[in-house]
Amino acid sequence: MKKLIFLSIALAMASVVVLSLSFKPETVRRKVDATAAKDSVGSVKAFKLVYKVLMSPRCMNCHPSGDVPLQGDDSHLHTMNVKRGVDGHGVYSMRCSNCHQPENDPGLHLPPGNPKWALPPANMRMVFQGRTPRQLALQLLDPKQNGGRTKAQLIDHMANDSLVGWGWHPGVGRTLPPMSRNAFVAQVRLWIDKGAYAPGVKAK
């Protein structure tokens, strides 16, 4: 009887050991996979492509360093003394919607349009103009500067916001960003999925 009890205990202990060993490799694999997902070189490489799009006139003109929107492929100051205003839609009678309709006006260099046409508001200016790649990356990742967006919401904004999408449908006479929107969004995803690294500071 004692032999049977001892044998039962031994078999039970062996089962526990086997089960514990069977779970260890999976735990290790999960840790390795999580580590492998981070790739600072790949993340920075992706952001540098994102940066080229964000610094193109189609994006930067609505993200100026001052309170005057920019115009044209040369990003000159908007004529007619247009200003940002508190809400980003202009000031007094000089509202963006006075000239910028829900769609582009047909014809060469006529006012572009979108239902959401505006600059970012004064309390969340989201400046692109003059930003280095590192500065812009850190700004985009900061909810206090990016409109309160998480990383997932930042991707969604780049992928689905209609005003962002206007950059690839700017009307006659305006150059497009340096890559398609789908390619741009793919690079945004890569940048964030690989760790959302900001380009480093260049050595002097």
Q: What can you tell me about this protein's structure?
A:
By secondary structure, the protein is mainly α. It has one domain. Helix content is 45%, strand content 4%. The protein has seven helices and four strands. Strands 1-2 form a two-stranded antiparallel sheet. Helix 2 runs antiparallel to helix 7 and helix 5 runs antiparallel to helix 7.
Short key terms for the protein model shown above:
single chain, 204 residues, mainly alpha, two-stranded antiparallel ribbon, 7 helices, 4 strands, disordered N terminus
Q: Could you give the count of β-strands? A: 4
Report the major sheet. 2 strands, antiparallel
Structural class: mainly alpha
Rounded radius of gyration (Å): 26 Å
Q: Mean pLDDT across all residues, rounded?
A: 86
Q: What low-confidence regions span 5 or more consecutive residues with pLDDT below 50?
A: 1-36
